[in-house]
Design a protein that fits this description.
single chain; mainly alpha; two-stranded antiparallel ribbon; about 65% helix
Length: about 525
């Protein structure tokens, strides 16, 4: 392991961080313009932004200069190390302005710096990993600069900050393709061009195009520019951070359907989008993973609509018994229950809510227009089951990815067939392509690790939360990068009440889920660091 190569790349990433943070700093200064430049610098988040920018640009440039010889020491191990350590470090830098703000709130003091930093790091890691699990019960009280910081973390993490660094610094030097493989979600990382920087530039171009298109449509629907940008960032990254406490529930039908459309597009392999935008739709239509993705959504929507139309919400006494960190009074619960029931009391309402929540969960976006914790247990279980699926490989969605689910199913069916036909030779295929054994082993191994991590996280979380459903839900909601779960971390709840050790467990769960486990585990093997 060439440590100088890793430090050089981290320095480059810090330079990128320093540049992108100029945007929320400018927004903060603009919002405090009535105070004047000098007084605005005394605002905690403004000071935090300025401090981080100076440190990132200064220290990053210093590291790049001192360890410049490391750019030529390429290797697979260095690539994976840069991805994992880069994500941990950039979450640290992004957390500092939010930490300063949290420490300035009434009741905070220096003794609470650990709690403030934990909450800030949790929120930022949730942003970068596009999980969308928030510690805030009242996000509308946050300054616009911090709301934008959360959305920006989503957008950068959706396509990958390392890939952005490759675009800005094509000669980054440290095993660029290994970093690309370690950061882009899914088992397929096809190149569109011979040079990696060209492929990454194309993917970012499609990403920016869709983000801009959604922003325009949301503004047509009535959002102002700031809200439209924040929600577009969160949608295309399949993140789910909103600028409103009610998420998307308070928006009009046009905005909700626009977000459904772009959540759906964000869950599709961006390479397929590139081909489709060039007029080559056959790549998309012939792609088995894309067809399976659509099939899962359609079946899940039909099941959800059917249950909501014929059954409605769960009985009030059952729904009221679900765990909440701060239980609603009987009067408030009855009012809330009535509001949620009204959303599905007709066919169109059930279809709209079903489409939104199914697409939101399947793509791991995590936006909400309904409190699905009040739905019948069948639908609650269905949504948790869908959290394991995720979007397509090469999308910005989390979860296992559709292609892995397909191959695991095919492997299981193949084994069943061979039990009765021992001499059967039946290779695993995706369309006309045979899946090689190495890839099958990789996918099955990932499936086992993903499931094992879910179980381990759930077991650990039972030590810190008083409800089993909450422990299970927050486990899959973080490793699958979804955000909202059930019970104590449901659609109208938050993660702020979870004890500090539990939050750090979930932080690691989010990181492992976003970087798809192997990338992180490789770095924690002692043998990897030996020369």
């Amino acid at each position: 392991m060439h440590k100088s190569a890793i430090v050089y790349a981290i320095g480059k990433i810090m330079q990128v961080m320093g540049l992108v943070l100029l945007v929320p700093l400018a927004l903060a200064v603009y919002d405090y313009r009535s105070l004047g430049i000098i007084k605005s610098l005394y605002q905690p988040e403004v000071f935090g932004f300025l401090l981080v920018i100076i440190l990132c640009l200064g220290a990053g440039s210093f590291l790049v200069y001192v360890f410049r010889q490391g750019r030529y020491l390429q290797g697979i191990k260095e690539g994976y190390a840069v991805v994992t350590l880069g994500w941990l470090s950039m979450a640290f830098w992004f957390a500092i302005p939010l930490c300063f703000y949290l420490m300035s709130l009434p009741g905070s003091d220096f003794r609470n710096i650990i709690g403030a930093f934990t909450d800030a790091y949790f929120e930022v890691m949730s942003g970068f990993t596009t999980t969308g699990a928030t510690i805030f019960g009242d996000v509308e009280s946050l300054p616009r600069s911090l709301l934008f910081l959360r959305a920006l973390a989503h957008w950068l993490g959706g396509m990958g900050i390392i890939t952005l660094a490759i675009v800005i610094f094509p000669s980054l030097g440290v095993s660029g393709y290994q970093m690309f493989r370690g950061e882009v979600p899914g088992p397929t990382k096809d190149k569109l061009r011979p040079r990696l920087a060209q492929t990454v530039s194309i993917l970012w171009g499609v990403y920016v195009l869709f983000t801009a298109a959604e922003t325009v449509l949301l503004m047509v629907g009535g959002m102002d520019l700031f809200e439209a940008v924040c929600h577009s960032f969160a949608t295309m990254a399949t993140g789910g951070f909103s600028t409103h406490n009610a998420s998307i529930a308070g928006q009009n039908d046009f905005i909700q359907w626009v977000i459904v459309l772009f959540m759906y597009l964000a869950g599709v392999n961006f390479i397929l989008h590139y081909h489709a935008l060039r007029g080559d739709v056959k790549h998309m239509v012939a792609n088995r993973e894309f067809l399976f993705y659509n099939g899962v959504i359609i079946v899940a929507v039909l099941m959800t609509v059917g249950v909501l139309c014929f059954n409605g919400l769960a009985p009030p006494e059952v729904a009221e018994s679900h765990f909440r960190n701060v239980p609603l009074s009987s009067e408030n619960f009855a009012e809330h229950y009535g509001q949620q029931a009204a959303k599905v009391d007709n066919f169109y309402g059930a279809v709209k809510v079903a489409f939104f929540q199914v697409v939101s969960i399947v793509t791991t976006t995590g936006f909400a227009t309904a409190d699905f914790d009040l739905w019948p247990n069948f639908l609650r279980f269905l949504l948790v089951f869908l959290m394991f699926f995720g979007g397509c490989a090469g999308s910005t969605g989390g979860g296992m990815k559709m292609v892995r689910i397909m191959i695991v199913f095919k492997v299981a069916l193949n084994i069943l067939r061979k039990l009765t036909q021992p001499k059967l030779v039946a290779p695993i295929k995706l369309g006309d392509q045979v899946v090689d054994d190495d890839r099958i082993i990789n996918i099955v191994s990932f499936f086992i690790l993903f499931t094992g991590l879910f179980v381990l996280t759930a077991i650990l979380m039972t030590l810190f939360v008083p409800d089993l459903v909450t422990a299970l839900a927050c486990s899959i909601a973080t490793i699958g990068n979804i955000g909202p779960g059930l019970a104590g971390v449901g659609a109208i709840e938050n993660y702020g009440w979870i004890p500090l050790p539990g939050k750090w467990i979930l932080v690691m769960s989010m990181l492992l889920g976003r970087l798809e486990i192997f990338t992180v585990l490789i770095v924690f093997r002692p043998s990897v660091w030996r020369k």
